[in-house]
Specification:
Helix content is 35%, strand content 19%. With 572 residues, the chain is α/β, with parallel strands linked by helices. Among the domains are: 100 residues, Flavocytochrome C3, Chain A, domain 1 (Alpha-Beta Complex); 121 residues, Up-down Bundle (Methane Monooxygenase Hydroxylase, Chain G, domain 1), CATH 1.20.58. It has a 5-stranded parallel sheet with strand order 7-3-2-11-18, covered by helices on one side. It has a 5-stranded mixed sheet with strand order 19-17-12-22-23. It is globular and about 65 Å long. Bound molecules: flavin-adenine dinucleotide (FAD).
Length: 572
């Protein structure tokens, strides 16, 4: 029998978005709330700790930056698919989040004159990347977590894997989860839920993401009846370390690093002469793939041909002070010291622009459910996210959702009953069906094949032929998934079982992303179709929405909110 636990609010995910929301609620409602914080990994191991380069905000208004400029950069960066009311809300709120973190104790990097230091980042027309050297996410997480310790109104559920979101009659009721430590099946009830479960970076083999970033929250929300929005837009970051895919922060180029081809040329002069290495990520990634395809790359292991990122001219002092983590990573993983030698890099899967459809307040179409951070699609990033806007988004919408949820709890949101048959069905799916399957297929082999498939057909460049072949092969993988066997049959810390549930989620998300990519017959931001190389505002200035139906995923769309600027040609 499943054990039932009740909270006022559940926060699914303890990355930047989840912790920021938790802190907002904890401070405001103090003794009048009890919060459940759920994470499948130890709290501080959420992927947010990996954020390197910085968090965007306008701080230097007196030196020429302003909110309109940040909004314009974000909208142009999004290839005009961002909702402009959302963008303005974001740029207005972001500076407060930076100062708030400072008051909570975050040691931002400083300038000589004592002000907060900000560096350049791709697509931003002013230095806005607020940073703590190149370990920004780590310091942000630590600060939020430390501050949360002042309150005693929350309970942590670390290493608790959520398997489903139970919704009844349009209202959130509960989460079902496996407590990994003892294998117990839990029903976590609450009046409200925030989904802050991060992105789906491990859909790809060559990715910057931690192995734990498997899109669970997106897949569970989709099954619970929420639409997924703009799922075709996946960001490829220009500089993944070859062959591991570890991120080499854009901060390297923000500090003045060069990208060079095998003739030693700074090839970005041919693609974005105005911005060079600080053009947005989609543009640089396409340029790099073209250089490689035209034979101007270096041949790398496992077909991972690469280009050079050169920092040597910056001097040892800059590298040691501003990019110490990058130097350490390069020395440990590829035996390259960037103070002297160039770093081998190529475009790498990095971010999901799409996600759970929400309104401007982070609310979904289900009563009692909000989503924030990378899991959500509040439509801030459109077709391409600018670097450093993501951690800022997590803070801003973590804050907004926290306030919204606190309002609803104060107004006395009721606690819905949990339909017992739904809990029983989920428990049967996990422990009866999946764990007991006895087929010839190994889930780890399938997972490897899925990621290879996504690398091949959903990479920087796409085509009708490639995606259609991908969908057909995905169908085969899904068939084989029915015949898997999980080796470990035990209940205690069964990582085989959890990894199989993660694969189930990734298989659903792969199909949705491919369907959306096939439908969008144009090139915009991170979605580049070889067969439709132009942006097509007449037909495609709209968001895609994919909903679950009994007959499979169904595709729809909704308009882009344009409040300030009409789309123009995007040149850098
Ligand atoms: C290497 C790297 C560097 C980056 N650098 C930057 C940067 O410099 N600036 C920037 O703006 N952005 C950066 N990004 C992007 C940014 O870090 C992320 O988009 C952001 O941190 C995501 O935060 P989040 O709170 O949405 O989720 P995450 O931090 O990913 O946390 C997700 C949480 O959900 C939990 N969870 C997920 N599924 C389940 C489940 N089934 N059951 C229970 N718990 C679950 C996890 O345990 C975790 O606690 C970077 C990303 C990477 C990968």
């Amino acid at each position: 029998m499943a054990e039932q636990i009740t909270h006022d609010v559940l926060i699914l995910g303890t990355g930047l978005a989840g912790l920021r929301a938790a802190l907002g609620i904890a401070r405001r409602l103090e003794q009048n709330v009890n919060i459940g914080l759920v994470s499948k990994v130890q709290l501080m191991r959420s992927h947010s700790v990996c954020a390197e380069g910085g968090t965007a905000a306008v701080l230097q208004n007196d030196e020429g930056d302003n909110l309109d400029l940040h909004a314009w950069d974000t909208i142009k960066g999004s290839d005009f698919l961002a909702d402009q009311d959302v963008v303005f809300r974001f740029v207005e709120q972001a500076p407060d989040e930076i100062y708030q973190l400072e008051r909570w104790g975050l040691p931002w990097s400083r300038r000589e004159d004592g002000r907060i230091l900000q560096r350049d980042f791709g697509g931003h027309s002013f230095p806005r990347a607020t940073m703590a050297a190149d370990k920004t996410g780590f310091y942000e997480m630590q600060t939020l977590y430390d501050t949360l310790q002042k309150y005693d109104n929350f309970t942590r559920y670390d290493e608790v894997f959520v398997t489903s979101i139970i919704v009844d009659d349009g209202h959130f009721c509960a989460l079902t989860a496996i407590d990994m430590m003892d294998g117990k099946f839990l029903v976590l009830r609450a009046r409200a839920l925030l989904i802050a479960s991060g992105g789906a970076g491990t859909l790809f083999g060559f990715t910057t993401y931690s192995q734990t970033v498997t899109g669970d929250g997106l897949a569970m929300a989709y099954r619970a009846g929420v639409a997924l929005e703009d799922m075709e837009f996946i960001q490829f970051h220009p500089t993944g370390l070859v062959p591991s895919g570890i991120l080499i922060t854009e901060g390297c180029r923000g500090e003045g690093g060069y990208l060079l081809n095998n003739t030693g040329k700074r090839f970005m002069s041919d693609y974005a002469p105005g911005k060079m290495e600080l053009a947005p990520r989609d543009i640089i990634s396409r340029a790099m793939m073209q250089e490689i395809e035209q034979g101007r790359g270096f041949s790398g292991p496992e077909g991972l041909d690469y280009l050079h990122l050169d920092l040597a001219h910056l001097g040892k002092d800059v590298v040691l002070r501003r990019l110490p983590l990058i130097r350490e990573l390069c020395m440990k993983f590829v035996d390259v010291d960037p103070v002297v030698d160039p770093i081998p890099v190529r475009p790498v899967a990095h971010y999901s622009m799409g996600g759970i459809e929400t309104d401007i307040h982070g609310k979904t179409n289900i009563e009692g459910v909000w989503a924030a951070g990378e899991a959500a699609c509040v439509s801030l990033h459109g077709a391409n996210r600018l670097g450093t806007n993501s951690t800022a988004e997590c803070l801003v919408w973590g804050g907004i959702c926290g306030e919204q949820i606190a309002d609803v709890l104060q107004a006395g949101q009721p606690l819905p009953a949990v339909p017992a048959d739904r809990v029983a069905a989920e428990e049967q799916h996990v422990f009866g069906d999946l764990l007991e399957r006895k087929g010839p297929q190994n889930p780890y082999a399938l997972s490897h094949e899925l990621r290879r498939l996504m690398d091949e057909c959903m990479g920087v460049f796409r085509s009708h032929e490639g995606i259609s072949t991908g969908l057909r092969k995905l169908g085969e993988l899904r068939g084989r998934w029915q015949q898997i066997a999980i080796e470990d049959k035990g209940r205690v810390y069964n990582s085989n079982l959890v990894n199989t549930l993660e694969l189930e989620n990734l298989l659903d998300l792969a199909e949705i992303a491919m369907m959306a990519a096939l439908a969008r017959e144009e090139s915009r931001g991170g979605h580049a179709r070889r067969d439709f190389p132009q942006r097509d505002d007449e037909h495609w200035l709209k968001h895609t929405l994919i909903r679950r139906t009994d007959d499979g995923p169904e595709i729809g769309d909704k308009p882009v909110t344009i409040t300030h600027w009409n789309p123009v040609e995007r040149k850098y």
